[in-house]
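Database export, one record per block. Field names are fixed; values are copied verbatim from the stored entry.
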Amino acid sequence: MEEAFREQGGGCMRRFGNGSLLAAILIALTISSSPQGAFATDGAGSQNLHFPEPSFLKPNVAFWEQIYTTYGVGDFVLHDRENLGVIYGVVRVGDTTDLARAADLAKPEVQRLRAKYQDILSTLAAGVPAEELGPEGRFVWQAWACPCSPEGLRRAAGGIRVQQGLREKVDEGIQRAQGLLPRILAILQEHNVPVELAALPLVESTYNPQAYSKAGAVGLWQFIRSTGKRYLTITRARDDRRDPLRATEAAARLLRHNYEALGSWPLAIVAYNHGREGILTARAAVGSSAIEDIIARYAGPRFGFASKNFYAEFLAALKVVQPFLIGQGRQREARTRQRGVENAGLSVWHPQVTGSAPLAPLAPAAPMEAEPPIEASLPPVDQAPAEQPVTPEPISISPDLPAVPTDSSPDASEEY
């Protein structure tokens, strides 16, 4: 969260006794009938009026929902950075739930698998028939709905990204959220902003008031110091960014101001990550206020993977949090998936060729932002998107070193 709103002063903080907590729960139970409700639709019951899901973004939303609910911290998904529906494989580490430790264990196999698919894509770009490259060559050809231009294949070779799964972290976040959501919802209602915004802390901090990032963002809503000091008390003795209620009031005001400046809740959400002035610039450069146009066409130097995916991550988080916003959520139990190889410390899912649905054709080469090839990670599938992520399938090794504890909050848009 970068952009600071320009209002001075803080407003009175509401503290909640038993009566107020009951009122907040009643608010949550009546959300569906409210103009600000989480489930306002377009009449067909399929679109949220405040936060629509354009067809262009459906594969990306489905990808992030999988990262939040299907892939665990030991899963490292190799995918195309532009078309998140193209998944080349999944490296899976067992016997640890520590983010950093899992990343260290997976790194050699991730590098090997990435190099392998880079070589396949480059070889296809050179004109070698897919049939000569075995099942994986045929898979890549089919996944990209080839024939494809050599330029597009070369772009794809340089655009293989790795994302660490977050299922366990999201499960922990949902447990924390259940105690916070009634109060968050009440504050959002008081500030006349959509209650769906209560899903944003899942993306920012997995509802951890003590979370901090490498960029210095702190708390439930991940305010950086320069922004927070405009309207929160931040001293050596007290940091209101760690107070979930004060921080929620601040976030509600900031998001309201983003909306007033940009005229769109999707743009207000992206501005929370990229900055209000940055989105004003993007809108002017593209000549459109449509979120899908800005994501597809804006090529600003700072508008990279994190900013382009922030709205899709929010929509995926909303799908996860949505049941709790209308009082229908049950305690979500962490799910333990069967491993491909019993007692294996590391496995790799390779894609199946047969039955893989072709995805969008390769676009022409686009400028790639400079970043490290692999980094440790934190910042969604119950609907069938128009372009389904390619389903990969399982090989094996085993860790023997202890996990290294970490108290930093990972960011889903960072790369392993």
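Remark 1: The two ends are 21 Å apart (CA to CA).
Remark 2: The mean pLDDT is 77.
End of record.
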